[in-house]
Design brief:
Elements: E1 4-13, E2 16-26, E3 31-35, H1 42-50, E4 57-62, E5 65-66, E6 77-80, H2 92-102, H3 107-120, H4 136-148, E7 154-158, H5 166-183, E8 186-191, H6 194-200, E9 203-208, E10 211-217, H7 218-223, H8 228-233, E11 240-248, E12 252-257, E13 260-265, E14 274-282, E15 288-289, E16 300-310, E17 315-321, E18 324-330, E19 341-345, E20 352-355
Parallel strand pairs: 3-8, 3-9, 6-7, 7-8
Antiparallel strand pairs: 1-2, 1-4, 4-5, 9-10, 11-12, 11-14, 12-13, 14-20, 15-19, 16-17, 16-19, 17-18
Helix pairs in contact: 2-3, 2-4
Bound molecules: adenosine-5'-triphosphate (ATP) and magnesium ion.
The site of magnesium ion has 2 residues, from α1.
Length: 364
């Protein structure tokens, strides 16, 4: 069992509130990512969990027991840092064995554990090398190995892949995922890369300014973002949005923006009536590029093709009108040219709406 619970934790450094209020329940065996832009409090949150920083307020529980005041080494957690933080004067073997020696683990057991983990991570050929003689990717593996030999209850990762080049980064990402599937150790991973978060995580906590804006299964964060901020932070390309006004009357749902009016029948008598400034959002894969040449109807947006982004597997087509733009994903062999007048269909069941003022999702 290794379930981590954060109850209203906060951390201030003088006047800076690095973490304002974070409450999360991280179930046993899960892989959870703290995702957010630079400065939003990810590292501070992780350091609080590790015990490297003391909370200003709140409580941290491990399997229901408060560990808020425990020293880092009492918590049974292992951290992998962005800069690896290896001991440069030691070789790989010594780096891996170091924490076990401190804990007075018998020599034979240390040897067995180091060699076993080295084999799993395919660094068994490197055990005698000094870490200063290793490539970035190899150092990354050693940092991972050093955490693994501790057989921790919880892994904490602080952007461990951000110093690697794109190809290596993708490969290590897959390895970390496989490793988690194999070990099933509760893992808390920090990144600002939403793709990395989507690919690795069971649950994602999207953070902003020291708080968690949404916490849930990765697929739900993608499909039902509860906030405009989450909707546009997650997903590539960025979710297309149009500012306008949303009105639900007794018979219809209407979204109006500059020179654009969409209308659908009201979903049912339970749908709340409203008339509010709102933002419409739709993901590129949900926008349908129509063949008709710019014919407007009650659920289409018409415009001109701006940018074309052919990626090989798909092409992203930007459709612009006035200051509004949406992106549609199309098959790579579709004939589309910059400047074409086009219409795109916005299927009602694929639309997201957010209150303009609060950014909160409107469920209709
Ligand atoms: N020791 C400290 N003293 C003062 N302010 C700090 C300290 N550590 C962090 N902060 C501030 O707290 C805020 C959150 O920092 P934190 O390092 O947790 O962000 P982060 O989300 O990890 O960012 P990044 O993606 O850049 O690593 C920032 O405004 C930062 O400047
Ligand atoms: Mg950080």
């Amino acid at each position: 069992m290794s379930r981590v619970t954060l109850r209203g934790i906060a951390k201030s450094f003088g006047l800076v509130q690095a973490v304002k209020e974070v409450s999360l329940d991280i179930p046993d065996h899960t892989f959870v990512t703290l995702l957010g832009p630079s400065g939003c409090g990810k590292t501070t949150t992780l350091n609080l969990i590790a015990g490297l920083e003391k909370v200003t307020r709140g409580e941290i529980l491990l399997d229901g027991i408060s560990i808020t005041d425990w020293a880092p080494h009492e918590r049974g957690m292992a951290m992998v840092f962005q800069n690896y933080a290896l001991y440069p004067h030691m070789n790989v073997y010594e780096n891996m064995a170091f924490s076990l020696k401190l804990k007075k683990v018998p020599k034979a057991e240390i040897d067995q554990r180091v060699r076993q983990v080295a084999k799993t991570l395919e660094i068994d050929q490197l055990l005698d090398r000094r870490v200063s003689q290793l490539s970035g990717g190899q150092q990354q593996r050693v940092a991972l190995a050093r955490a693994m030999v501790k057989e921790p209850k919880v892994f904490l990762f602080d952007e461990p892949l951000s110093n690697l080049d794109a190809a290596l980064r993708t490969r290590m990402r897959i390895e970390i995922k496989k490793l988690h599937q194999q070990l099933k150790t509760t893992s808390i991973f920090v990144t600002h890369d939403q793709e990395e978060a989507m690919m690795l995580s069971d649950f994602i906590a999207v953070m902003r300014d020291g708080i968690v804006v949404q916490y849930g299964p990765a697929a739900e964060i993608y499909r039902r973002p509860q906030h405009h901020y989450v909707a546009t932070f997650i997903g590539k390309p960025r979710m297309g949005t149009i500012d306008g006004n949303l009105r639900v009357d007794t018979s219809s749902v209407n979204f109006e923006a500059k020179g654009m009016k969409l209308s659908w029948p009201r979903g049912g008598a339970n749908m709340p009536l409203m008339d509010v400034p709102a933002c419409l959002g739709i993901r590129a894969e949900d926008v349908r590029l129509l063949d008709t040449n710019g014919a407007a109807s009650s659920d289409t947006f018409t415009g001109e093709v701006g940018l074309l982004e052919p990626l090989g597997s798909d092409t992203f087509v930007e459709v612009i009108r006035d200051s509004m733009n949406l992106t549609a994903r199309v098959e790579p062999d579709r004939q589309v040219h910059v400047g074409d007048k086009v219409a795109v269909q916005l299927p009602r069941n694929k639309l997201h709406f957010f209150e303009s003022v609060s950014g909160r999702r409107i469920d209709i």
